[in-house]
Amino acid sequence: MSKQFVLLPTLDIEDTERKPAGQFSTWLAENQQSGDADVPCGGCNACCRSGYFIHITPQDTDARSHIPGALLFPAPGLAPGHMIMGYNEQGACPMLIDERCSIYEHRPQTCRDYDCRIFTATNIAAGDGVKAEVNEQAARWQFEYAQETDRLKQSAVSAAINFLAEHCALFEQDLLPTNPTQIALLAISIHHLFVEPSPQAPIDKVAAITQLIERNA
Ligand code: SF4
Ligand code: SF4
């Protein structure tokens, strides 16, 4: 059995409308470090209007003090203290006012971590419906592949996403994430297993990936 991921749209736009995403291997290294994502969003706020539930952790004390309590509810399946902020009928975050984040300096870590270039790197779509604009934004980014290592790492990320698609049935039920953001992040986090073509049997690779997922749970 294989899992089909929806691919990013191909945009029919001029090169001048593409957005430089930086050197691929540099971006990949930074993406895997903890800390705020440094995304040159420009005037874009598509992800704030894309129907995301925003996870607010117990550590997000500053964000909590700036978000009305009525907008927060307990995060299903997580320990007490983890909260979720929803979105309005159009899919927009309630803290987005006049097209700007009204708590930008105090926004939750989830928002600081978000980087739509994960979809560019994995070539999978963020979702459908209200996520269409995020897909378009992700399709606009253009990575640089000036060094051989950039191409090798991009191939490894692509191999990782292909492996997850082709061998999902070999994983324990419910182990693999189902939403595109988590799938893209997983493929990026396991890409090192795919840098060199390996004689490892798929089942052994599944065991290595399972270990990594469980270690990070
Ligand atoms: S969709 Fe991407 S470019 Fe647009 S605001 Fe979100 S992270 Fe930035
Ligand atoms: S809190 Fe701010 S940055 Fe986060 S989704 Fe809402 S408007 Fe966007």
Outline the secondary-structure elements.
Blueprint: E1 19-23, H1 24-31, E2 54-56, H2 61-66, E3 72-74, E4 83-85, E5 96-97, E6 100-101, H3 109-113, H4 117-122, H5 132-140, E7 141-144, H6 148-166, H7 180-189, H8 202-216
Parallel strand pairs: 1-7
Antiparallel strand pairs: 2-4, 3-4, 5-6
Bound molecules: iron/sulfur cluster (2 copies).
One iron/sulfur cluster is lined by residues 39, 41, 44-47, 114-116, 134, 137.
Share of residues in helices = 25-40%
Secondary-structure element series: EHEHEEEEHHHEHHH
Number of strands: 7
Report the bound ligands by name, code or SMILES.
Answer: iron/sulfur cluster
Q: Radius of gyration over alpha carbons?
A: 18 Å
Walk me through the structure:
The protein has about 220 residues and is an alpha+beta fold. The protein contains eight helices and seven strands. It has helices at about 25-30, 60-65, 110-115, 115-120, 130-140, 150-165, 180-190, 200-215; strands at about 20-25, 55, 70-75, 85, 95, 100, 140-145. A hairpin with an 8-residue loop joins strand 3 and strand 4. Helix 1 (about 25-30) packs across helix 6. The longest helix has 19 residues, at about 150-165. The two termini are about 25 Å apart. It binds iron/sulfur cluster (2 copies). One iron/sulfur cluster binds near residues 95, 101 and 107.
Which key features would you list for this structure?
single chain; 217 residues; alpha+beta; three-stranded antiparallel sheet; two-stranded parallel sheet; 8 helices; 7 strands; 36% helix; 10% strand; binds iron/sulfur cluster
